[in-house]
Amino acid sequence: MGERILVVGAGATGGFFGARLAQHGRDVTFLVRPPRAAALSRDGLRVTGPDGTEVIDAQAVTAQDLGGGYDVVLLSVKATGLGRALDDLAPAAGPGTAIVPFLNGLAHMEVLNERFGPRRVLGAAVRVISTLDADGTIVQLAPLASITVGAQEGTPPSRAEDVAGLLSGAGFTVRATGDIVGAMWHKWVFIVSLGALTCLARGTVGEVAAVPGGTGLALAILGEAAAVAAAAGHPLPPAERDAAAGFLTRPGSAASASMYRDLQAGRRTEVEHVFGDLIRRARSLGVATPLLDAATLTMRVHDARLGMPPG
């Protein structure tokens, strides 16, 4: 395959999928900041998972040296850095480039459509539980790893099918769907539920499940998030809801949300993009979300301590 893939960011998510693609013969380049580029050039990209640790010889480029000619851009940044990332990747996004965002929620789609046009922007729902160690190693915390892509309404579905084909066969699940908005809502419900649970309880899934009331809290939070999705016209299929409930109540699980890990590390969070946008939609749909409201308030207080304006 001769298609060129640009992965914007080499963090826990983009680094994981980019590494897998590179391992399986894809032409992958990582767009990163100069310190990360130097580290990748010196040490390679280290990925640790259930099968051990692998080191990938990663191609890296910084914004000042980025050129065009990329067929697919995998945009894997936190919502707090989206604006700068779009400026950085702009030279790579030609008329035929497909841009696939790995962000959670839905708010970023409007920003991307305005910047690049909906024909170039695919919707995506990415599922992987991974983190970035202090030394830059990507650690996969659970075997789950999948990408679902789909064209936006009014754009050719073949674009998503072509991208899914390019990304397939690299050690994770890939599929194209005709209902990408539904898939993004369902992923959002899961991420919000995991984030609210671990941030409110200040613990991993297993730690919460191990104490009285922990399982009940997990299921109540999931119920609130699922109710918002249903009111928006995207109810969770029973099997997917059961799977989410099982994940959120699993005894002994070390899983936690990236927002919880940011909270623990004293970093700025994606509270507005992930939590705030959902509860605003809940209000407009007439859905009560007291537990999600509490989680949002908790994270806003955290970010305010770091000097970030609330709301």
Brief write-up:
With 311 residues, this protein is of the alpha/beta class. It has 12 helices and 10 strands.
Structure description:
This protein is of the alpha/beta class and 311 residues long. It has twelve helices and ten strands. It has helices spanning 12-23, 34-43, 82-89, 107-116, 158-167, 180-201, 205-209, 214-231, 238-248, 258-265, 271-285, 290-305; strands at 4-8, 27-31, 45-49, 52-56, 59-61, 72-75, 98-101, 123-132, 138-150, 173-176. The protein has a five-stranded parallel β-sheet with strand order 5-2-1-6-7, with helices on both faces. Strands 3, 4, 8, 9 and 10 form a five-stranded mixed β-sheet that branches.
Outline the secondary-structure elements.
Elements: E1 4-8, H1 12-23, E2 27-31, H2 34-43, E3 45-49, E4 52-56, E5 59-61, E6 72-75, H3 82-89, E7 98-101, H4 107-116, E8 123-132, E9 138-150, H5 158-167, E10 173-176, H6 180-201, H7 205-209, H8 214-231, H9 238-248, H10 258-265, H11 271-285, H12 290-305
Parallel strand pairs: 1-2, 1-6, 2-5, 3-9, 6-7, 9-10
Antiparallel strand pairs: 3-4, 8-9
